[in-house]
Amino acid sequence: MTNKFNTRPPNLRHAGGVRLKITMLSPFSSKGATTGRLYELAKNMDSATRIIIPKSDKYGRSKEDELFLFTLEKKSFLLLPLHVYKTLKYLRGEKPQVVYFAKPHLFTFLPALLYKIMQPDCSLVFDCDEWDPATLRDNEENFYKVWLTDFLAYLSIRLSDYVVYSNTWIREEKIPRKYWGKCFYLSNGVDTKEFRVREHKRGKEFSLMFVGLLHKIKHILPIIDAVEIAAKQISELKCYIVGDGPKRKELEEIIVSKGLSRFFVFKGTVAHEKLPELLPTTDLLIAPFSDIEGVRYQSNIKIFEYMAVGIPIIATDVGDIKRILGGGKAGYVVSPGNPKAIAEKIIYIRQNPVKSKACASLARKLAVDTYDWKVLAQKLENFLG
Questions:
Q1: Percentage of the residues of the chain whose pLDDT score is greater than 70
Q2: What is the 3-state secondary structure (H, E, C) of the chain?
């Protein structure tokens, strides 16, 4: 039986140069990473684009921006009917050619699907920026929430005209092959004018920096063990931990118990807008992703920001990381959970500054040429058009 929702729509860019009209839906405030992805794409597209989101949620309160439309003052599932009503009211008045919804979530999938039923000529696009059921399992969410998200994910894939996915593993392992023809790969990205190479005076220390939440301990422990190994050859080594979370105290206690306190500095939470100036102050950046299900399907923005500042990178070979880093030519890729391998790369970067700088320069070039949000937004428009 033919699925009427999977019929490829006609060319969406009208003759005469009329701009494509797109409405994006995200279930999160502007503080959420998913909404951040949509915002960066929207502001760099030529299309007339608006983003419908709740004004505030667990991530925080949205910033005021002309691209945003707020349906709810504060997100609540009790207010889902009101959100759907307001979203449909806007869509029926605006009549966009494309409804681009993020996440297999009732706040996005439901109004998008209902509008598609009312306006069959509209193109429905599902933005799959990670495999959410896997992330929920990693976070030990309850069975019913995982099951519902899994069901909505496959329903979104089946009923959408297009599926935009951010990690190649999502298509290879999660999207049924019969739908590959309507799929389009679009990773996350970075603003390379904001995140750029900056010159800083180097002191006597040799520093590495980790940026991320401290809500899990598994991916941080290899850094601690690697520093313990590398410090035997690099006495001036210093590791900066940027971020905060419930595991910070436990990590600090582990460092003290190992007698490594002089090698570590916890900087706490740093506002994202300050990272472009902070990242270039270190000698190397580290992204020790754990090989767990949810992480394999993510397109972590951190790695693109690391690349853009032109500092040597050590990252673990999880999911798409090696491919993003030019097959390992634009960064030093090691197996996950291997502190000895991380330590060896720290020592290598310290002892081979010219080669390491060349590697970092390649990462910067890849960020500019391939992963800048302007480049990604143009690719998306070309696909839809």
A1: 95
A2: CCCHHHCCCCCCCCHHHCCCEEEEECCCCCCCHHHHHHHHHHHCCCCEEEEEECCEECCEECCCCCCEEECCCCCCHHHHHHHHHHHHHHHHHHCCCEEEEECCCHHHHHHHHHHHHHCCCCEEEEEECCCHHHHHHHCCCCHHHHHHHHHHHHHHHHHCCEEEECCHHHHHHCCCHHHHHHEEECCCCECCCCCCCCCCCCCCCEEEEEECCCCCCCCCHHHHHHHHHHCCCCCCEEEEEEECCCCHHHHHHHHHHCCCHHHEEEEECCCHHHHHHHHHHCCEEEECCCCCHHHHCCCCHHHHHHHHCCCCEEEECCCCHHHHCHHHCCCEEECCCCHHHHHHHHHHHHHCHHHHHHHHHHHHHHHHHCCEHHHHHHHHHHHHC
